[in-house]
Design brief:
Elements (H helix, E strand, L loop, with lengths): L8 H8 L1 H22 L3 H24 L5 H26 L6 H24 L7 E3 L3 H18 L5 H18 L5 E3 L12 H16 L1 H36 L1
Antiparallel strand pairs: 1-2
Helix pairs in contact: 2-3, 2-4, 3-4, 3-6, 4-5, 4-6, 5-7, 6-7, 6-9, 8-9
């Protein structure tokens, strides 16, 4: 008589590990799809695919924690997926869309972004046990990819009548900023202190509904604005900490 998978705890336990890795694979596919669409000149679809990868990437870790299926393999696979979806894909989308107009300056900016994403992910993997879990060290690569994708989506969707040369140099500055911000020590809020359990209060559902409605009102504008605020928030936290440290030092000297 064949074994019933539903009655075999070991088989069922192994099967659960497929769930978070399935989300990671979907995020990897979205990043690859973004590159393909950019090569075909469909930049709006490429930007949307990167945002889809962002959502899927945020789900795989939470699913793994909720189902208690975290593993070293899953962590490494997630990092490789992030490198594709938020490292290589945004740089290639931006290069195919606008940076190629700048010649070597364009591909150099794209390379700075890719190198920044690789260094950011490598540092995250090595410092994961020693840093403050409330904050990321440097701009996280998904947020950097969302900044790039949001800018492309905003311009293409709204058909902004802006000189192409101006757009090219704006893209250059934004790409460089994202690449450099990923390797800084600026603290960016991680959101890990806000952990969702198996059940949540009713007000959390209301907040999610309100956020969904707000984003749906004009996705390119709202998403880009939100990630611009987040992309600059690290400077605000750093400045607040610097001023607070100065005030504490001054108070100690007065004693």
């Amino acid at each position: 008589m064949a074994n019933n998978p539903m009655r075999d705890p070991e088989q069922r336990h192994r099967g659960i590990y497929l769930l978070p890795n399935a989300f990671t694979t979907a995020a990897l596919f979205a990043g690859f799809y973004a590159v393909v669409q950019a090569m075909n000149g469909r930049f709006e679809m490429a930007a949307i695919a990167i945002f889809c990868a962002l959502v899927l990437d945020g789900m795989d870790g939470r699913v793994a924690r909720l189902t208690n299926t975290t593993s070293a393999f899953g962590e490494q696979y997630d990092s490789l997926s992030d490198m594709t979806s938020f490292g290589v894909a945004p740089a290639l989308v931006m290069y195919e869309w606008m940076l190629h107009d700048l010649g070597r300056w364009g591909w150099l900016a794209a390379f700075v972004y890719v190198a920044g994403a690789a260094l950011r992910l490598a540092r995250f993997n090595t410092n994961i046990a020693v840093v403050d879990k409330r904050f990321f060290q440097g701009l996280p690569s998904p947020a950097a990819g969302a900044l790039i994708a949001g800018f492309v989506w905003l311009v293409v969707d709204n058909r902004l009548q802006v000189p192409r040369e101006f757009l090219a140099w704006t893209s250059f500055v934004l790409t460089l900023y994202c690449g450099i911000a990923m390797v800084t020590n600026l603290p960016f809020y991680s959101g890990k202190s806000f952990a969702l359990g198996r059940s949540v209060p009713f007000w959390v559902i209301l907040v999610f509904v309100a956020g969904f409605v707000f984003i749906s009102s004009d996705p390119p504008v709202v998403l880009f604005a939100l990630f611009v605020i987040y992309g600059l928030s690290g400077w605000g936290v750093w400045l607040w900490r610097w001023r607070r440290q100065g005030q504490l030092s001054a108070s100690r000297n007065q004693r």
